[in-house]
Structure formats: structure tokens, C-alpha cells
Specification:
By secondary structure, chain A is α/β, with parallel strands linked by helices. In chain A, 40% of the residues lie in helices and 20% in strands. By secondary structure, chain B is α/β, with parallel strands linked by helices. At the A-B interface, helix 3 and helix 4 of A face loops of B.
Chain lengths: 122, 407
């Protein structure tokens, strides 16, 4: 069972994603900020991260650079309320992005693709 | 083989090599050498570095201009034999030189770049020092610059080898110790690689050997000497696309199991004040005409390579006319996949060349379609079009794998 780390400062998003992704057969852990995120990843060894771009104290795009530098092949899906982030070059380090929605069909599709891609490289 | 060598400082082992492949570059080689030297002195004063010009026996004074440039870094000049031409030949001679220089990091910069600055040395070398195996640039580029990369090399490379390397054949790159050793063995070398195909050869080998790839944000356009664009594009097309197809055979076990694609590391991505790209004009009418004429000229050969349905689709695309011209991504992807399989099956080099020549007008048609689709878009929006087309390639990879196994 693939383990997914959801990083988002909004509690209702963490709850929604956790419930839906568990129902879809994934193990889900959550973090409410980017605080000590790299240590958390090191410890929990998630198979994929769903990362909010705009958190109160953290910029998801900056966290993404740190993740990519340390965990080169770890899939990261950016989760955002707006798609203006695409103008930022840093977003190129993400596997995919999804616009936040109560319908998680797109997120589940991108998770499956990212995990499939990673597996094909192993 | 290295035909001539001058090593006035008697350089042996070094940490860093900056290599500049040349042929008749006397006008600009001194500028590039000075900027590289300033970068090495500024950023890596404690490392042993050397600047190497790998020449094609230029007779215009390139050697004299290079060795006569006042630098703090030592210099080495190597050359192929008279009459031996090509960037690949230059770099193979460089790879041969690795045995004695034993570098930890290598930067390759083209000799005709007019706006290279010392920072470029840092932006390419530093990612290698931080663990990247292969580094490619992200130059500021106009949406219609490097369309060969936008509509063929990037989508195909990404679909095959599963890594999103946007400007893999820009001509400049850096790499670390693992690839120094791998490149020195020069596996799967060919006549196409001996010239411009070397850029594809290097990145494909980097991907195959699973080197961590980093794209470094340069923040400037690459300004270089203007050559005959039409002649250059045709030659680059044959050599780059030919090399891509050529390498699909030895690396088939690798690419056939790759699904979707993954990003790379980025360096200097926080750069905010980028320069603006140089405006470009594209003549859509001429591109469309070249496509249309080529479709007629190569009809017999294309009919052998493509399915009747694809030939019908091409005629349909042409019949739309220039006003609403649209070459769908799905059609383009399956055509490239079919051509790749036909190229693999071709029994002679002449036949392979004919297949590439028949594909060339279709490429111009695809460029015309891309220009038509993006003419009112910003560079950012045009990039999204390229990204979406890449996804179409990835979604149809099963078709390629099937064709490859059965054709």
C-alpha cells in the first residue's frame, strides 16, 4: 500500500484528502506545515507527497526545491487554489499539479500516474 | 583521435574542465575564454581548472586567438586532423583527454556565444558540485526559438526516457565524474553523433545511466552568431532526430518500460529578473507551403512508412488550409512513432536518410500549426501548449511500444 504525505495548513483539506485517499486504498499521513518537513520525509519515507503551495508560514514552491534536491525521485504533486504559480520556474520541479477541489478525481488520477512513473524507473 | 595538442602549462590532473568546441571561431573565442576564466577565478579559485579548446583544425587563427588570450587559468588546445569536422569529433577528443585530466566536473560551452558571463560558469558547475550528474540550461527563449526542440526533441525524449529536460540540445551542458568515465567509452557512436547528434547522445546516455539531471536557470537568452537558419535547421534536424531514432534500438529495454515522466532538479530557479527574449518573426505561409509540397514529393515513401489512415489524416490537415491550420498532437505523435519504427527497420543508411528527409516537411507543418495555435499567446502560455502536447506523447506511448515490437 503506497504511503501518501499530505502537507496543507487547512485542516478541512487534510481531512478531506485523508478520508478520500484512504478510501482509495492509500495509507495517508499529514503535516500542517513545512516545519521540519525533510526530517519527516526521512523518517516516514512516503511514496508520494501532496504539497500545498501557499501555506501561512511556508512557500510550497521553496519546499519543493528542498525536497527535489534531497529526494530526487520522490513524486510531489502541487495542490493549489490558483494556477498562477505556473509562471514560477520553481513549479517545474513538481511531478504534477492539481487545483484544489472537493472532487478528487483529478488528484487520484495524478497520484496513480506519478506512482506508476516512479515504479517504472525502479 | 587527437591530431594536434598544445599544453603550454603542462597541465596534468585537474578538478574542473571547461571545454569549448570550435571550428573557425577566431572572432569570438577570445571573449568566451576571458569570460570563462573570470568565472573560474571568481567562483573556484581553490580548484585546479583548465580551459580546453577542442578544435577542428581551424585555419582562421582560432588556435592563436585562444592561446594568445591572457588568462589566469591554464589552457590546452587540441585538434582533430585536417578535414575532420563536427562537434561530436571535437568532444570525443575531449573525452579521450579525460584519461589524463581526470576531472571531477566538466562544462561544455559553445564558442560563438556573445553574451556568456562569468556567472554562467557557476550556474553550470555548481549543480554538479551539489550532486547533479548532468546539467542542462534553461535559457530565456522566444516561443518560436528552437522549435525543433519544442515539437520533436523534448516531447520524444521525455516520452521515451521519462525525464522532462526542456532544452536538452541547447549545445551547452555540464556533467560530473560518472559521465566523464561513461563518455570516455563512447558507446553507440555513429556518424550522426560525430556532428550535431552529440548533444542528443550525451543527454540520452545521461538518462540511460540514471544520472540525476539538473536544469539550471541562466536568466538570459543565448545570443550567438546568426548562421543560415534554413540550412542549419535542416542539418540539425537530420542529425538530432536521426540520433534520437538511432539510440532507440540499443536503449529499447530501458525506454520501453518507462511510463509517464518525471521532473528534474532545478538550480537558480529563484532568479527573478530575467531578460526578455529576442523577438522572432515566423513565415507561416512558407512553412505551410513547404509542408504541402513535401507531402506530395515524399508521398510514395510516406505511404510505405505511415498507415493509410495517417496518410488520409495528413491530406485532411492540408485541406484545412493555412487560415485554420491545425496539426493535432495525437497525429504528430503517432507519425513520429511510426517513422521511428520504419527508421529502425531501414536496411541502409541511404534509406534512413530518405526517411528523415520525408519527415522534415511534416515537421515544418507541425511548426506552422504550433505557430498558428500560439500566435496570440505569451511565452508562458505557449510553454503550456508544449507541455500538453508532451502529455499526448506519453498517453500514446503504448502505441509506440506496440509498433516497435511488431513493425
Amino acid at each position: 500500500m503506497a504511503k501518501i504525505l499530505v502537507v496543507d495548513d487547512e485542516e478541512h483539506i487534510r481531512l478531506l484528502y485523508s478520508e478520500e485517499l484512504r478510501d482509495a486504498g492509500y495509507e495517508v499521513i499529514t503535516a500542517e506545515s513545512g516545519y521540519k518537513l525533510l526530517e519527516l520525509i526521512e523518517r516516514e519515507k512516503p511514496d508520494l507527497i501532496v504539497l500545498d503551495i501557499k501555506m501561512v508560514d511556508y512557500n510550497g514552491l521553496d519546499l519543493l526545491q528542498d525536497i527535489r534536491a534531497k529526494f530526487y525521485d520522490l513524486p510531489v504533486i502541487l495542490s493549489t487554489a490558483y494556477d498562477t504559480f505556473k509562471e514560477d520556474t520553481k513549479s517545474m520541479a513538481a511531478d504534477f499539479y492539481v487545483v484544489k477541489s472537493f472532487d478528487l478525481t483529478e488528484l487520484k488520477k495524478k497520484i496513480a500516474m506519478a506512482l506508476e512513473a516512479r515504479e517504472s524507473f525502479d | 583521435m587527437i591530431y594536434a595538442e598544445e599544453n603550454p602549462s603542462g597541465v596534468t590532473e585537474v578538478d574542473l574542465v571547461v571545454a569549448i568546441p570550435t571550428f573557425n571561431e577566431s572572432a569570438n573565442i577570445s571573449t568566451v575564454t576571458s569570460q570563462v576564466d573570470a568565472g573560474l577565478v571568481k567562483y573556484y579559485p581553490d580548484l585546479k581548472s583548465v580551459i580546453v579548446v577542442c578544435d577542428n583544425y581551424s585555419l582562421d587563427g582560432t588556435r592563436e586567438a585562444f592561446l594568445g588570450t591572457d588568462t589566469k587559468s591554464p589552457k590546452i588546445y587540441i585538434s582533430s586532423a585536417p578535414g575532420e569536422r563536427g562537434k561530436g569529433i571535437n568532444l570525443r577528443n575531449l573525452f579521450q583527454k579525460f584519461e589524463s585530466l581526470n576531472p571531477q566536473a566538466v562544462l561544455i560551452l559553445e564558442a560563438d556565444i556573445r553574451n556568456v558571463s562569468p556567472d554562467w560558469v557557476y550556474n553550470f558547475i555548481e549543480p554538479v558540485r551539489k550532486g547533479a550528474g548532468y546539467v542542462t540550461p534553461i535559457y530565456v527563449h522566444h516561443k518560436y526559438e528552437a522549435t525543433l526542440s519544442s515539437v520533436i526533441v523534448y516531447p520524444l525524449l521525455r516520452c521515451l526516457y521519462g525525464r522532462r529536460v526542456r532544452q536538452s540540445v541547447a549545445g551547452d551542458c555540464a556533467f560530473g565524474r560518472s559521465l566523464v568515465e561513461h563518455f570516455a567509452k563512447a558507446p553507440y557512436w555513429s556518424d550522426l553523433v560525430a556532428e550535431k547528434g552529440i548533444d542528443v547522445w550525451m543527454v540520452v546516455n545521461a538518462l540511460y545511466t540514471r544520472q540525476p539531471i539538473c536544469q539550471t536557470v541562466i536568466g538570459s537568452p543565448k545570443l550567438h552568431r546568426v548562421k543560415d537558419p534554413h540550412a542549419q535547421v535542416n542539418k540539425a534536424f537530420i542529425q538530432l532526430v536521426g540520433t534520437l531514432f538511432e539510440l532507440m534500438t540499443p536503449f529499447q529495454d530501458f525506454w520501453m518500460r518507462i511510463k509517464w515522466s518525471k521532473p528534474t532538479m532545478l538550480f537558480n530557479a529563484e532568479l527573478r529578473e530575467a531578460e526578455v527574449p529576442i523577438p522572432m518573426d515566423v513565415n507561416i505561409a512558407r512553412l505551410f507551403e513547404t509542408f504541402s509540397r513535401g507531402l506530395d514529393s515524399y508521398r510514395d515513401l510516406l505511404s510505405q512508412v505511415l498507415s493509410p489512415a495517417e496518410m488520409h489524416k495528413l491530406d485532411e490537415i492540408r485541406s484545412i488550409g493555412i487560415q485554420h491550420f491545425n496539426f493535432p498532437a495525437h497525429t504528430w505523435a503517432t507519425i513520429l512513432f511510426d517513422v521511428a519504427a520504419a527508421y529502425r527497420n531501414a536496411t541502409s543508411n541511404d534509406m534512413k536518410l530518405s526517411i528523415l528527409e520525408a519527415l522534415l516537411p511534416l515537421y515544418y507543418g507541425k511548426v506552422a500549426s504550433y505557430v498558428r495555435k500560439t500566435e496570440r499567446m505569451s511565452t508562458q502560455q505557449a510553454e503550456e501548449v508544449v507541455e500538453n502536447e508532451c502529455m499526448v506523447f506519453e498517453e500514446n506511448k503504448a502505441y509506440l511500444v506496440n509498433r516497435w515490437k511488431t513493425a
